Amino acid sequence: MSLSISSTGSFSSIPSSSEMTSFSDGLKNASTQDLLGALSKSGAEPWQKDAILKELQNRASEGSKANGDNGGAGDSQDDIQKLLKKLQDGTITAEELQKLAGMLGVDPNALEAIKGKGTGTGSGDTDIQGG
């Protein structure tokens, strides 16, 4: 399955609730490989990348619960979020990359391909400067 990401112009547009819901629902049917590929695309809106990251986190959390890692599920969620952020920033170590690949159930080479292709914006990353 191919994941379609589209951008409407050079400015970030604020999506409607139905657009966000529709996009998020579509992510549930995409493969993890497709999600990782979409995450590395430069044309994706910040809200789309946030939704993709959330879906990847949900999948990794579900995978750890299926493996019996129920104690500390919040810690696992935080780990996934931190590792995905480091992956996007390009600051992830080889050991962390292996750990994230295991959590997501993907080949580490797939993660290596998107290493450092961060969003530049996203949840909590926005810096507003006044003058």
**Roughly how many Å is the radius of gyration?**
15 Å
Spans with pLDDT under 50 lasting ≥5 residues? 120-128
Largest sheet: none
| N-to-C CA distance | 47 Å
Global structural class? mainly alpha
Report the order of strands and helices. Answer: HHHHHH
Overall 3D shape: globular
**Into which percent range does the helicity of residues fall?**
55-70%
DSSP, total strands: 0
- Beta percentage is under 5%
Helical segment count:
6
Mean pLDDT: 77
What secondary-structure arrangement, pairings included, does this model have?
Blueprint: H1 17-29, H2 32-39, H3 46-66, H4 73-89, H5 94-104, H6 108-114
Helix pairs in contact: 1-3, 2-3, 3-4, 4-5, 5-6
Task: Describe the 3D structure.
The chain contains 6 helices and no strands. Helix 4 crosses helix 5 (94-104). The longest helix has 21 residues, at 46-66. The chain is mainly alpha-helical and 131 residues long.
